[in-house]
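In this supplementary section we document a worked example of the pipeline. Step one takes a protein sequence of length 188 as its only input; no multiple sequence alignment statistics are reported here. Step two produces a three-dimensional model, which step three serialises into structure tokens for compact storage. The input and output of this example are shown verbatim.
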Amino acid sequence: MTDASFISDRGNVFEAAFNEFGYTCQKIVPQAFGSPFCQPSKLLIVPSGFADPKYYKVLPALKRNKEKIAEFIKNGGIVLAFGAMLDDYEYDWLPMKLKYNMQFKTRNVRLIKPDSPAALLLEPGEKDCDGYFTEHDGETIMTLDDGRPVLVHKQYGKGHIIAASLHEYPSKKFIDWACSKERESLTI
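The serialised model returned by step three reads:
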């Protein structure tokens, strides 16, 4: 079993960060995503740029496994989905309303819901942002100074959907929460 899964047709950019904190992060290639070869995990990470084929070729696998992703979350799994890196994008493979607009820039980020588990993702301040969310039916956790959401959270069943247009690695606090020993590993 693994603590986190990272869907990628390239290398595993999260493995070193997770290993540093004492956790495992396995890369899942799109062809194996949702198959019996996909090991159970507690956290699924969808990388920045996942929707643009010049960065990754994982979007068909996410769309093909929409129901399995919803079941994973409903049963207690966590999905951390980063920015799509397209001008306008709707996350139609997630069980929530979520729309995104790309605008890459270093911006000041404010925390407005400190009691949310998503607030553990990273500290507020100057951050690289690849865009913002134009619509969602979750809670806004962090915003740009102008109020546009850059981190949103939705509880779905026993699990969580966390969407971030922040171009940063998750903090140790977030990884400790998402991959805690009390959390059950689930299949996708």
